[in-house]
Amino acid sequence: MLKGIHHVAIICSDYPRSKAFYTQLLGLRVIDENYREERESYKCDLALPDGSQIELFSFKDAPLRPSRPEAQGLRHLAFKVDDLDDVIAHLKDNNVEVEPVRVDPYTNKRFTFFTDPDDLPLELYEL
After folding, report:
1. 70 pLDDT exceeds 70?
2. What residues does 9 pair with on adjacent strands?
């Protein structure tokens, strides 16, 4: 049956800004990048170290989608990290606001949230 998550697709409002955020700030590697002229759209496949991917899309005049932590639909995208404090420091050094660290009462694991350039909720979950 299911073996894991292959990719998550994100439609961004400003392609160069989001590409820089995910590659330069978060360190994801570009696997492939294409401009699809007929759709006036970029598609960029980004790799995480565990083999999972983010597909970053741009679409002209894409509508906004409500995205709040308690809205129906996808709640957030969580990234595994070894050292939460190091990643938080890196984000803060790059002017990214990070919520206070919380502890999961069931696993005792530390985690926090921040947002991408389109205000999409992202989580850091310490292993």
Report:
1. no
2. 55
